[in-house]
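Input (structure):
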């Protein structure tokens, strides 16, 4: 379902992948610095989640300013929170690369604004860009250290923007429950020599869905 989401005096283009049965939880998904919501990894993940009963909204927000993109995320959260049609109990924010930084920033700001709000259930970071290539002295970890909801990282073990030991070090300092899933030999774009794109996407989708299911079940106990 194509939708336009109010964002200031503009609209964000979005697509909802709606499961056949009514969904209680949703995932909001966005792209990295390049591309848009039709990036193949996002389309694949949205289809997988909807087929397993989780509503997925992916949206496009161009621009390389994290604060601007975090605001866009907040508008999308608000849109789903107020939607009578989908009537969700909660959402997980998810993004690829820069989109995951924007998601982390949005969660940090939303938790500041509304302490008793548990509409945000967790964060999924696909290829989180912890540092610039070859510039590992400056880590982009400030938002991660403030987040309290569960976090899943799915990163390539050969990601030039997320050195393995550095992410594990940041994770050890986080307050939140976190899990890191390493895709063996994958780079920042999640490509692995000798493996097909579909094969890698299936592995990522399975990891994301099983983590979501665990967290939704824990909430419902």
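Output (sequence):
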């Amino acid at each position: 379902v194509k939708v336009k989401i109010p964002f200031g005096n503009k609209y964000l283009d979005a697509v909802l992948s709606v499961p056949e049965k009514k969904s209680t939880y949703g995932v909001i998904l966005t792209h990295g610095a390049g591309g848009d919501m039709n990036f193949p990894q996002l389309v694949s993940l949205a289809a997988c989640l909807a087929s397993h009963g989780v509503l997925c909204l992916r949206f496009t927000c161009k621009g390389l300013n994290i604060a601007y993109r975090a605001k866009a995320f907040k508008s999308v959260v608000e849109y789903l929170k107020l939607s009578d049609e989908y009537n969700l109990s909660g959402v997980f924010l998810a993004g690829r690369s820069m989109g995951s930084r924007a998601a982390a920033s949005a969660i940090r700001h939303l938790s500041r604004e509304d302490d008793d709000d548990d509409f945000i259930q967790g964060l999924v970071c696909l290829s989180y860009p912890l540092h610039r290539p070859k510039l590992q002295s400056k880590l982009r970890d400030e938002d991660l250290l403030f987040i309290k909801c569960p976090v899943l990282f799915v990163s390539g073990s050969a990601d030039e923007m997320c050195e393995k030991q550095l992410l594990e070090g940041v994770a050890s300092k986080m307050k939140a429950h976190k899990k890191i899933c390493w895709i063996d030999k994958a780079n920042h774009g999640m490509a692995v020599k000798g493996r097909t794109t579909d094969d890698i996407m299936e592995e990522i989708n399975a990891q994301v869905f099983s983590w979501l299911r665990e967290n939704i079940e824990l909430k419902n106990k």
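Notes: The longest helix spans residues 197-220. The mean pLDDT is 93.
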